[in-house]
What we know:
The complex is a heterodimer of chains A (496) and B (240). With 496 residues, chain A is an alpha+beta fold. Chain A is 30% helix and 13% strand. With 240 residues, chain B is mainly alpha-helical. Chains A and B meet through helix 3 and strand 8 of A and helix 2, helix 5 and strand 1 of B.
Amino acid sequence: MNVRSQVSMVFHLDKCIGCHTCSIACKNIWTDRKGTEYMWWNNVETKPGTGFPTRWEDQERYKGGWEKKNGDLELKSQNKSSALFNIFHNPNQPTLDDYYEPWTYDYQNLFNAPEGADQPTAKPISMITGEYINVEAGPNWDDDLGGSPVYAQNDPNLESLTPEQREQLFATERLVFFYFPRICNHCLNPACVAACPSGALYKRGEDGIVLIDQKRCRGWRACVAACPYKKTYFNWSTGKSEKCILCYPRLETGQAPACFHSCVGRIRYLGVLLYDAARIEEVAKLPDDQLIEGQRSLILDPFDPEVIAGARANGIHDSVVESAQKSPVYQFVKVWKLALPPHLEYRTFPMLFYVPPMSPVMASKEGGVIDHVSGDLFHDIEQSRVPVAYLAKLLGAGQENKVRYALRKQKAVRWYRRALTVGDVTMEVSSRMLAEADCSSEEAEAIYRLTSLCTFEDRFVIPPMHREEAIQMMEDPLEHKASAGFGFVSGPQRGM
Amino acid sequence: MTNPTMNLLLFAMLPYVALFTFFLGTILRYRKAPFTYSSLSSQFLENNQHFWGLTALHYGIIAILLGHLLGLLIPRQILLWNSRPLRLYVLEIFSLAFALMALVGFVGVIERRIRYPKARTVTTPADWIIESMLILQAAAGIYVAIFYPWGTSWYSTSAAPYLHSIFLFRPDISYLVTMPFIVKFHVVNGWLIVGFFPFTRLVHALVAPVPYLWRKPQLVRWYGIGILPVWPRRPSGARD
């Protein structure tokens, strides 16, 4: 056992209202610089939808993540020698067209236009060339299913559905969507780190945050191709790659990352997980259907004396272990099994987990009343408008039972609270549901509290970062805003 | 270029100025401005034509530079190889093919930068200058290869001793003064490229990521320790 600590995250999709406040908070702090205009370290996608960059989940095209080859784990995008042979032209690098051309507007024209018969307009201008452009794509072009016949239909996850299910998903007046906010997953087995020819990417030992050393990065773009979530981005102006830094300067001062802090729906949770680094490779080679249990088995019980001793032996501070014991992420992921990792089949072991969203029941019965107290108390989960198969493709590595378990438990908790507060459901029924959903009333109460009544301190259990030990972190990061990266004071200029 | 003073200046002085600038420039830049130590890829902005120019020029230039280096290091063996006509032709044809590949690549690259506005926005004056120098260099080299056969052999008997004399700090320009203009141009432009090298994107060649071949896949950095290449292990006594 090799105990490590990892700052991990849970996004409760059932609470996400798709307001994009997180994206704006992040953009204003980190990616409002030249070369980063198109980057969205945090973005919110509508699902079903194609996402950002377009169809990023289609790994046949983007070649992200790991794959098993002859029992070995290999990057899909490259092996060691092909990385060098292809270094002059990366065959798997997404280009600007896969994202969008960032633009602003010619606002001056509103003031300077000569008098004429028509109102002056502010035409869009490319932020790359400065020329007028026709805007044809954006970071969130298919928000709320906008243009869904063109966009949402191309969602790679829809491959898991039957033609009837697909049809129902997009039937007029029955269609449904949910939001899928994404940041860097700060994976345990990051493909970006493994792909970097220069060794510029690394995982921080103390908290597992994955960063790109801007001085060491030579802009070979291998990380951009290798990350299956497309959460490393190429800065076209500095020629370096950049990614979500989980607001480590904020974390180190005890503040939640900006996207977490600003979350209106309070869907985000952050806390430490202790994990066993010695078994990562072994677990990453498991077959698809064992991956979820495999990743859960990597996460260690922070109350187990053996784990605590292992943590101490590895120099993890007691205060961090204590923080891990209070971690809301540990509850959601390991204890309650409500939160699931996105696309675990890419085998990077993302440490951002999602609570799958509940959705309305499919109103397939014409004018019929849906009986909520039928023999099968969970029938509506099978009939929900977002098919379980779809969610399983997204969050369950294809395992429907894992998603079903999380949805059933969520429903049981709702009905338990309904029995308590509204009273239109009998306690007997709610108890039966809890039992069937593998949930005690204490657990239901705890889930309810952490889901609905959670305060700032409940949601963000930030471990002490022991900055005093981080000599290189003593500089004020905001001093370097608009310069490239941290730790050195120079503009992102490239010389002549 | 027949003036003796000029010859001395260009073939005996310029090399040292160029080499001095090269070493001082590359080292200082690596230490003082590591952030700038790379090329600036424009593949992200233009990916249709990128492959052809870039791949051709790199494979071409690597082979050609390797050839120049071999001629410098093992001139006798090259001569020995060339003693049979067939082997000479093979070597000459391959060299010429790679040189043409490099030239086509260079032209393709500059054409692409002129043609696509997005690629142009990330092109600096230094890029234009070094690109032009490289095109001239490749063109001159090809001209020499075609019109002054057999270069692979006489390189070993004249250029190699000249370069040896430079690197041994006993500059002997007698090998060069009688050479045709275009050969002299190739040499002078070569030294200019060497001297200009540290101020251009060419520095990325010095940080070619060869260690990737034997590196462990995952990297972890700890406070105050730096990079640890082996990732399921943690240093003993690293903290507390």
